[in-house]
Amino acid sequence: MTRIRRGYIARRRRTKIRLFASSFRGAHSRLTRTITQQKIRALVSAHRDRDRQKRDFRRLWITRINAVLRQNEVSYSYSKLIHDLSKRQSILNRKILAQIAILNRNCLYMISNEVIK
């Protein structure tokens, strides 16, 4: 019985996985089994951290807005500003407010004074 040459499909699949893991260190980029394990682990981490990144940025924006507001007036806080903005049905979200707080504090003070009235 003659030797049968294997097809190219499995080799193509492995090279695709190797390209994904080419930047990993050590056996994580050389051995096929560990490459597949590390690929699964990397994709799980990426999926989890996309949600975590949204959470972290929202916390950062809230902290920045609150810090700038408390410098101006001690009694007026972030939660009151957001409550008043939602009552007025304003389209300013937290990301925009945080950028305004960093780049132009006076503008944020004007917005907060306008919302109070």
From TrEMBL:
Keywords: Chloroplast, Plastid, Ribonucleoprotein, Ribosomal protein, RNA-binding, rRNA-binding. InterPro entries: Ribosomal_bL20, RIBOSOMAL_L20_CS, Ribosomal_protein_bL20_C. Signal peptide: none annotated. GO terms for cellular component: chloroplast; ribonucleoprotein complex; ribosome. Coiled coil: none annotated. GO terms for biological process: ribosomal large subunit assembly; translation. One of its GO terms (molecular function) is structural constituent of ribosome. Its main location: plastid. It is found in: Plastid, Chloroplast. Belongs to the bacterial ribosomal protein bL20 family. Binds directly to 23S ribosomal RNA and is necessary for the in vitro assembly process of the 50S ribosomal subunit. It is not involved in the protein synthesizing functions of that subunit. HAMAP family: Ribosomal_bL20. This is Large ribosomal subunit protein bL20c. It comes from Myriophyllum spicatum. The lineage of its organism: Eukaryota, Viridiplantae, Streptophyta, Embryophyta, Tracheophyta. The gene is rpl20.
